[in-house]
């Protein structure tokens, strides 16, 4: 994590003189602006005065602040000590305690981030795979659009490095018909060799997370090439490859039991007439033959260079640990209870159509089985769709074009910041309750109220050029704040725009009502106001409400590509209230001067 060594590039120089910045307006003259130094907003000064004496916040004061304002009741002494230790090297630190400058430095520093358990896996990881949302990619090999971009291992590697756990590969015969390549069929996309993709996955699978990687094959190859794929996968992954004990299981294994394992998910190959006839002559049933082949296949490979034709299909089949399929016939048949678990794939449009009448059945299906949702075919620009529709119906694998950009990818990345960024998030209990199946279309009462205060922001001058936002004056920043969640919770609000300030102070307060806080995310976007309505981008982030820390927090901002800026950040405050115990009129204000002092 970056060490936060300065509040901003804009500092009041020695002697107290204010820096000045010049913008050329025309050949005749220049506009001159004073550069405001970063200093605590009035509300922060009031809070400091309430938790300090004679301008000094000692250890006892800091512990009280950490407990009462930051809401950290446990290990408050240890955290307060860590805050003191992090500031000792600064000239503004005093042994007696913190002055306002040091306190402000802590508030904007990395120790005061917005998420709890930021780098820690803390969910129960021992439940079946069906109980988790899984970070899932779509056409993971494409570098750009879905029609004419190149295929490469680079986007696969980048996806794994960001925590993606499901990689999709489309398998096709190569031009000579004797090998397998990965490409988007029926388009102008260039291919990449399957073996290169497999090696890239092996080398980067567990750098970000030790939890299992699932490879979904979209299979367009014959049995001879399937046998080659089976050999290639087995030799590349070795002990990393998970092979199920049985091809039919009533429950998926857990992420904890599959640490550092690679799973294959695809539609099982179909049998030829000759293979079906051979099983009739054999006293073993087809299912028993599959299980026997799984045990004996490795011994056979030691004794022969080529797998006999009747064994080809079983070698490939025995790679598959998650059986997949697409619905054929009545959807009710697919959603009905079966003895063995499986994965169902639906396009975003198919899901939207089905949930109109079968929403609760989808939720019940996903309590034991896996549901993968993928972008509709018309998204040739690699855009994405609203993932919340799939999540609120229990879909575990919401497949996204990771190479695309936009609001919905930010929401996806925000969701998987939870649980230490490991790529697996335990689904909320409301989606796992078998006795009372969640109905996403039914009205739900408000459970939580979230209050948000946007105090100030800083750091853009260091991360962006002087004239990046405006050629003739400093920027006019405003902040959009809102909720991404179920339809009843989704909303966006905005602060006022502050003119000509690199370090804007808003002090704007917002209230959000949450009916399903377990699925909600806080969306934050900073923009530079433009009279044309085409506002310039100044950073964004998306935070899971379930892991949002209450209190005054430093919120780092990210680029459109999801890369964290080194300096740009917001100072905000968050507080939660139980809706059943608090009326709207009884909610306290964040404005410090309206509070009674806890010390005096």
Written account of the structure:
With 600 residues, this protein is α/β, with parallel strands linked by helices. Helix content is 25%, strand content 23%. It is built from 15 helices and 21 strands. The strands form 4 sheets. An 11-stranded mixed β-sheet has the order 6-5-4-7-8-9-10-11-12-3-13. A 4-stranded antiparallel β-sheet has the order 17-14-21-20. Strands 16-15-18-19 form a 4-stranded antiparallel β-sheet. Strand 1 (19-24) and strand 2 form a beta hairpin. Helix 5 packs parallel to helix 6, helix 6 packs parallel to helix 7 (223-237) and helix 9 (286-303) packs across helix 10. The protein is globular, with a radius of gyration of 28 Å. It starts with 18 loop residues before the first strand and ends in a 22-residue tail after the last strand. The model is unreliable at 1-17, 276-310 and 592-600 (pLDDT under 50).
Give a brief description.
The chain is of the alpha/beta class and 600 residues long. Helices cover 25% and strands 23% of the residues.
From the alpha carbons, calculate the radius of gyration and give it in angstroms.
28 Å
Mean pLDDT level = 86
Q: DSSP helix count?
A: 15
Q: What composes the largest sheet?
A: 11 strands, mixed
Counting helices, strands and paired strands, the structural category is alpha/beta
Helix content: 25-40%
Please tally the β strands and state the result.
Answer: 21
The outline comes out as: globular
Unreliable stretches: 1-17, 276-310, 592-600
Name the beta content range: 15-25%
What strand order characterises the main sheet? 6-5-4-7-8-9-10-11-12-3-13
Distance between the termini: 38 Å
């Amino acid at each position: 994590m970056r060490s936060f060594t300065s509040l901003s590039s804009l500092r009041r120089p020695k002697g107290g003189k204010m820096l000045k910045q010049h913008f050329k307006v025309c050949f005749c003259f220049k506009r001159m602006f004073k550069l405001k130094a970063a200093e605590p907003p009035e509300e922060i000064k009031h809070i400091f005065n309430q938790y300090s004496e004679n301008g000094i916040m000692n250890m006892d004061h800091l512990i009280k602040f950490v407990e009462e304002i930051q809401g950290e009741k446990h290990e408050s002494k240890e955290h307060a000590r860590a805050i003191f230790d992090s500031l000792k090297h600064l000239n503004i630190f005093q042994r007696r305690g913190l002055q306002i400058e040091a306190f402000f430095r802590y508030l904007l520093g990395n120790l005061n981030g917005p998420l709890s358990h930021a780098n820690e896996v803390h969910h129960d990881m021992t439940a079946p795979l069906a109980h988790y949302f899984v970070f899932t990619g779509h056409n993971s090999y494409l570098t750009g659009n879905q029609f004419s971009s190149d295929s490469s291992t680079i986007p696969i590697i980048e996806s794994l490095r960001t925590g993606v756990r499901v990689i999709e590969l489309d398998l096709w015969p190569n031009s000579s018909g004797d090998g397998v390549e990965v490409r988007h069929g029926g388009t102008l996309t260039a291919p990449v060799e399957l073996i290169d993709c497999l090696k890239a996955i092996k080398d980067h699978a567990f750098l970000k997370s030790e939890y299992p990687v699932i490879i979904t094959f979209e299979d367009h190859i014959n049995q001879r090439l399937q046998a080659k794929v089976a050999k290639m996968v087995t030799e590349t992954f070795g002990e990393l490859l998970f092979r199920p004990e049985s091809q039919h299981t009533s429950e998926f294994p857990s992420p904890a039991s599959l640490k550092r394992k690679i799973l294959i998910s695809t539609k099982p190959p179909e049998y030829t007439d000759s293979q079906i006839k051979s099983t009739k002559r054999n006293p073993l049933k087809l299912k028993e033959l599959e299980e026997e082949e799984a045990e004996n296949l490795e011994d056979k490979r030691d004794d022969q260079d080529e797998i006999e034709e009747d064994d080809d299909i079983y070698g490939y089949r025995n790679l598959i640990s998650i059986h997949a399929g697409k619905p054929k016939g009545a959807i009710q048949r697919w959603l009905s209870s079966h003895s063995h678990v499986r994965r169902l794939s639906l396009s975003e449009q198919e899901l939207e159509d089905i949930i109109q009448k079968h929403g609760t059945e989808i939720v019940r299906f996903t309590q034991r089985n896996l549901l993968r949702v993928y972008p509709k075919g018309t998204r040739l620009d690699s855009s994405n769709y609203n993932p919340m529709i799939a999540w609120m119906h229990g879909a575990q694998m919401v497949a996204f074009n990771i190479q695309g950009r936009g609001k919905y990818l930010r929401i996806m990345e925000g969701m998987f910041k939870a649980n230490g960024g490991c790529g697996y998030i335990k689904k909320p209990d409301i989606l796992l309750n078998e006795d009372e199946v969640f109905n996403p279309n039914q009205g739900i009462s408000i459970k939580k109220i979230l209050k948000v205060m946007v105090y100030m922001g800083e750091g853009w001058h260091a991360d962006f050029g002087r004239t990046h936002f405006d050629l003739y004056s400093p920027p006019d920043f405003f902040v959009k704040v809102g909720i991404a969640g179920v339809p009843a919770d989704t909303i966006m609000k905005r602060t006022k725009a502050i003119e000509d300030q690199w370090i804007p102070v808003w002090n704007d307060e917002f209230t959000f009502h949450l009916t399903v806080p377990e699925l909600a995310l806080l969306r934050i976007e900073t923009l530079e106001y433009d009279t044309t309505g085409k506002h310039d981008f100044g950073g964004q982030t998306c935070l899971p409400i379930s892991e949002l820390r209450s209190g005054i927090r430093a919120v780092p901002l990210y680029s459109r590509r999801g890369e964290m800026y080194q300096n740009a950040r917001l100072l905000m405050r968050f507080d939660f209230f139980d809706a059943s115990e608090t009326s709207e009129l009884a909610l306290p204000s964040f404005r410090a001067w309206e509070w009674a002092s806890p010390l005096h």
